[in-house]
């Protein structure tokens, strides 16, 4: 082909034609020429469609396995791939798994509680760690569940981890006792208090309270001492009212307060109950003025006879012997795990139970508060405490005063550096003799930022829905966990109850996190709540 013929077959450029021949093309000619040039231009290659890609991948997987396995005859490819089991541990323990260890999907903050029932991942959390990290607004937790489903075991896990992190556990009324072995294992302090076992003077709040006089700042020292004086007065008024079965009258309360302050105005030398009785009987002038019986001994004795009867009943001649009449055998050691073992107290004597629990709780809270005052003055190191209130129903039904006392703790714990957990069986345990007391007790649950719900009966769901937002799935889980153990016909032994250690962790009205707590062998040894059933083999 000659160059002349080749040139004629090329598409002409409209502008070149116009310049070479000095022609003016119409708009129709220019548009026609542009369409011709566009058709002659090379077109970009199309990307393969979905079907083409799948066919190509399928052909490739016949020779190389893909993410779903060998996609060929006999290859057995899978349609759905489950997430692998996720584990967490130290670098020494899981070094062989690297880099195939992933996060749990939940915040790994707090004590390791167990395995997620749906995701098989680690579930962590505790009221103190979550409060310090801003997840919850109040360092308190509440545990509900039927007996024998692992409530106490969950608390043992919290105690073990938090104590390792520097938090000081305090169990101020262990009535079974469930926590004595654990506190002993931690090297803590066990204070036994019951008839014939130990003595506690209710007028003695401990040497740490007495050391408040060492605070240099006069105003701070007066504030701290006046708080402890008020605590001691409230404690004695509460115990005396329990003995009388009624609240103290105004002149009785005034007389008791004045007498205690006259005997020990600066908390340096705590008197005994007998000293208090002798002082009131001596009819001092300061008491005569407050009783309004200036020169009339008969009027004085008559107005204070009921108060004296209550105090004498606490003395060595009273119904409880010398439990409250002698100097305290032991005081709480600050910064050391402590448990009050009151298992020897007759649970049928509601007055004694209430008095003992009130005394133990006041001693513990006074020690924590005194340490906070001393820490603010630079005299001691500031510590965080973790209070355990197990078998809450016993405490609440012992006395109306205990309801208000616990209510005060739950409202003020955040400012005192105290985390807490309360444990009971059902919401019905919080239904008390009077409506206003029931409302106060239900407030404990409402103010608990972190709640653990174990196996509960279907009839309990209505009570729970008054406080929590529960889905049908969550209610079904809790009722399923109440099933009894199944006996293996081969071994003739019962397996563990299916709901043992299973809980739903809820924060407010958010969806709950179901998990199961798996105890170590050491935890099993110290958390056995059936020691009374051990048989000699």
TrEMBL record:
<dbReference type="InterPro" id="IPR027417">
    <property type="entry name" value="P-loop_NTPase"/>
</dbReference>
<feature type="region of interest" description="Disordered">
    <location>
        <begin position="1"/>
        <end position="29"/>
    </location>
</feature>
<protein>
    <recommendedName>
        <fullName>ATP/GTP-binding protein</fullName>
    </recommendedName>
</protein>
<feature type="compositionally biased region" description="Basic residues">
    <location>
        <begin position="1"/>
        <end position="10"/>
    </location>
</feature>
């Amino acid at each position: 082909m000659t160059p002349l013929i080749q040139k004629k077959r090329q598409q002409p450029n409209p502008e070149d034609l116009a310049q070479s021949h000095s022609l003016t093309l119409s708009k129709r000619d220019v548009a026609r020429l542009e369409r011709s040039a566009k058709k002659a231009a090379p077109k970009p290659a199309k990307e393969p469609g979905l079907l083409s890609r799948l066919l190509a991948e399928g052909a490739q997987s016949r020779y190389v396995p893909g993410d779903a396995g060998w996609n060929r005859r006999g290859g057995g490819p899978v349609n759905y791939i489950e997430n692998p089991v996720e584990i967490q541990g130290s670098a020494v323990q899981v070094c062989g798994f690297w880099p195939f260890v992933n996060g749990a999907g939940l915040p790994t903050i707090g004590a390791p509680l167990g395995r997620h029932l749906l995701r098989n991942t680690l579930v962590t959390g505790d009221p103190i760690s979550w409060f310090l990290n801003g997840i919850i607004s109040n360092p308190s937790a509440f545990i509900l569940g039927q007996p024998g489903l692992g409530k106490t075991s969950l608390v043992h896990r919290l105690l073990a981890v938090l104590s390792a992190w520097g938090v000081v556990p305090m169990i101020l009324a262990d009535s079974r006792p469930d926590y004595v072995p654990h506190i002993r294992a931690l090297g803590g302090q066990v204070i036994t208090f019951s008839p014939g076992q130990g003595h506690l003077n209710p007028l003695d709040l401990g040497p740490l309270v007495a050391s408040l006089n060492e605070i240099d700042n006069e105003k701070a020292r007066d504030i701290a001492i006046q708080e402890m004086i008020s605590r001691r007065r409230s404690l004695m008024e509460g115990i005396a009212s329990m003995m009388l079965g009624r609240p103290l009258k105004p002149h009785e309360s005034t007389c008791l307060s004045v007498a205690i302050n006259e005997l020990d105005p600066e908390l340096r030398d705590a008197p005994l109950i007998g000293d208090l009785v002798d002082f009131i009987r001596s009819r001092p002038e300061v008491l005569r003025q407050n009783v309004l019986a200036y020169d009339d001994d008969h009027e004085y004795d008559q107005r204070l006879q009921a108060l004296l009867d209550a105090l004498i009943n606490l003395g060595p001649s009273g119904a409880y012997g010398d439990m409250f009449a002698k100097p305290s055998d032991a005081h709480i050691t600050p910064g050391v795990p402590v448990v009050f073992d009151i298992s020897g107290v007759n649970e049928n004597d509601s007055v004694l139970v209430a008095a003992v629990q009130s005394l133990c709780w006041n001693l513990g809270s006074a020690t924590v508060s005194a340490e906070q005052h001393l820490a603010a003055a630079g005299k001691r190191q500031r510590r965080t405490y973790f209070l355990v209130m197990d078998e809450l129903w016993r405490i609440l039904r012992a006395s109306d005063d205990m309801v208000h006392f616990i209510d005060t703790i739950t409202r003020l714990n955040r400012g005192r550096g105290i985390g807490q957990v309360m444990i009971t069986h059902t919401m019905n345990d919080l239904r008390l003799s009077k409506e206003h007391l029931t409302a106060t007790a239900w407030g404990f649950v409402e103010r608990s930022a972190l709640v653990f719900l174990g196996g509960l009966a279907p009839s309990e769901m209505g009570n729970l829905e008054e406080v929590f937002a529960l889905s049908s799935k969550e209610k079904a889980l809790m009722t399923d966990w109440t099933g009894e153990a199944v006996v293996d016909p081969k071994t003739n032994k019962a397996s563990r109850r299916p709901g043992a250690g299973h809980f739903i962790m809820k924060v407010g009205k958010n969806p709950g996190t179901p998990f199961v707590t798996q105890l170590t062998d050491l935890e099993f040894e110290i958390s056995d709540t059936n020691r009374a059933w051990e048989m000699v083999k």
